[in-house]
Amino acid sequence: MAPARRRRWRRRSQRPEIADAPYLIVFRQIPLWGLPGDNPGDTLDGYASYCRQAKKAWHPHLAKAGAQLLLCGHTHRFRCDEPTHERAYRQIVGGGPSLSSGTIMRGKADDKQLIVTATSLAGKPLGEWRISPRRG
């Protein structure tokens, strides 16, 4: 994404209704973070598992804005990447190679916590995460 669009996003993220929101969740098709050995999407070999270029461009903005959760698809397999010393937000990647193996992600929030659950389309639990509000 062009630098001008990132700057606009950053300005918008500072609006009171976003800056003061108790939870900041970002939705994105292609994950910003990959696993060791994953294709970073900036080579001519194979298929991209994540986008290293977008990570370099977006991660500083997400970190500064206080993002807590990044929800992605693209890889056709479910996984959850817990926060690390490099990244304070969790990245959950959903999806499936076919409709029958897709992932459903749900969120329920109140002033005390955000609960995110992931299940298969058949209802098999894949995970549950509890996120505290950013402020208060």
From TrEMBL:
Q: Which InterPro entries match?
A: Metallo-depent_PP-like (IPR029052)
Task: State the SUPFAM superfamilies in the record.
Answer: Metallo-dependent phosphatases (SSF56300)
What is the name of the protein in this document?
A: Calcineurin-like phosphoesterase domain-containing protein
